[in-house]
């Protein structure tokens, strides 16, 4: 990047390709994530959003450039990419169900000085449930454990995959609120199907279709373009700003 131009992104993906079971699921994907705020990774079911996230951290075979804070990391194993400052919150939450909330959090502590106070402030409910087996938590509470684990460490970026999936509207609002708070301290690449949450949180949007990037730009501009959202997501967003609580 030429000095004096746009600030360096925290994450730069270029020409990313990935295959699962012989099928190309990520095809020549290029985009950047800025150093602040939330960037939404959008698209219909099965277009490769989760695969893109997994490819970034090397959980599936891939080729292409993955640059974190100016450093190429695509040749590194997953654990080193994570250690270099990537917090991953997977779609299925992956809490240790037979361990308590406190144990789940302790296991995630990577830094010498984990940010326990921040986590306690953001998740008072988890503090109250620290002795409860994580497997007995509700879906929303498990999502909070998963987010809390990523926030305990100081990361350069969080990759958060469908955090509101399957949650009741009230809990969706709580998760969205937590993500907004988290985004004050760390940039987030967010896979999210709930467009009202995207509208509330995201500054930028990257839209995938058939494993390829088909649109990038300002998230609100995208969501306000009904024709574009119809074409790329198959949903109308026309009524979204007026219908509080409407699921899209
Ligand atoms: N383990 C797997 N085995 C075979 N095919 C897979 C596997 N995982 C994903 N795929 C396929 O890869 C493609 C991309 O899937 P991916 O989960 O990345 O999409 P997505 O955009 O995240 O979808 P969703 O919004 O439904 O979660 C899909 O066609 C999916 O069927």
What is the mean pLDDT? 91
The helicity comes to 25-40%
Give the C-alpha Rg. Answer: 18 Å
Q: How many β-strands, per DSSP? A: 10
InterPro entries: AAA+_ATPase (IPR003593), ABC_transporter-like_ATP-bd (IPR003439), ABC_transporter-like_CS (IPR017871), BCAA_Transport_ATP-bd_LivF (IPR052156), P-loop_NTPase (IPR027417)
Pfam family, one: ABC_tran
Domain ABC transporter: 11-235
Protein name: ABC transporter ATP-binding protein
Overview of this structure, please?
Residues 11-235 form the ABC transporter domain. This is ABC transporter ATP-binding protein. InterPro entries: AAA+_ATPase (IPR003593), ABC_transporter-like_ATP-bd (IPR003439), ABC_transporter-like_CS (IPR017871), BCAA_Transport_ATP-bd_LivF (IPR052156), P-loop_NTPase (IPR027417). One of its GO terms (molecular function) is ATP binding. Keywords: Amino-acid transport, ATP-binding, Nucleotide-binding, Transport. Strands 6-7-8-3-9-10 form a six-stranded mixed beta sheet, sandwiched between helices. Strands 2-1-4-5 form a four-stranded antiparallel beta sheet, covered by helices on one side. It has one domain (11-233): Rossmann fold (3-Layer(aba) Sandwich). The longest helix has 14 residues, at 139-152. Strand 4 and strand 5 form a beta hairpin. It is 33% helix and 25% strand. It is built from ten helices and ten strands. The protein has helices at 49-56, 78-83, 101-108, 116-122, 124-128, 139-152, 169-182, 195-201, 219-223, 226-233; strands spanning 11-20, 23-33, 38-42, 62-68, 71-72, 86-89, 157-161, 188-191, 202-209, 212-218. Helix 3 runs parallel beside helix 6, helix 4 runs antiparallel to helix 6 (139-152) and helix 6 (139-152) packs parallel to helix 7 (169-182). The protein is α/β, with parallel strands linked by helices and 248 residues long. The model is unreliable at 240-248 (pLDDT under 50). The chain is globular and about 45 Å long. It binds adenosine-5'-triphosphate. Adenosine-5'-triphosphate binds next to helix 1.
């Amino acid at each position: 990047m030429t000095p004096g131009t746009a600030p360096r992104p925290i994450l730069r993906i270029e020409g990313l390709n990935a295959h699962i079971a012989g099928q190309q699921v990520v095809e020549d994907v290029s985009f950047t994530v800025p150093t602040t705020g939330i960037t939404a990774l959008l698209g219909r079911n099965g277009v490769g959003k989760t695969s893109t996230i997994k490819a970034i951290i090397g959980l599936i075979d891939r080729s292409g450039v993955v640059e974190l804070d100016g450093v190429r990391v695509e040749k590194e194993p997953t654990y080193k990419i994570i250690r270099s400052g990537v917090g991953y919150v997977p779609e299925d939450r992956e809490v240790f169900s037979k361990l308590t909330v406190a144990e789940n959090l302790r296991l995630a502590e990577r830094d010498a000085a984990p940010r326990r106070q921040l986590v306690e402030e953001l998740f008072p409910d988890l503090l109250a449930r620290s002795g409860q087996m994580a497997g007995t938590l509700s879906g929303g509470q498990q999502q909070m454990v998963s987010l809390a684990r990523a926030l305990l460490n100081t990361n350069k970026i969080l990759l958060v995959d469908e955090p509101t999936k399957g949650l009741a509207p009230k809990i969706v609002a709580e998760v969205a609120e937590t993500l907004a708070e988290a985004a004050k301290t760390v940039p987030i690449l967010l896979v999210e199907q709930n467009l009202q949450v995207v509208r509330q949180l995201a500054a930028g949007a990257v839209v995938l279709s058939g494993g390829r990037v088909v649109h990038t730009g300002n998230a609100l501009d995208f969501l306000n373009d009904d024709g574009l959202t119809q074409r790329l997501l198959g949903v109308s967003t026309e009524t979204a700003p007026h219908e509080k609580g409407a699921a899209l």
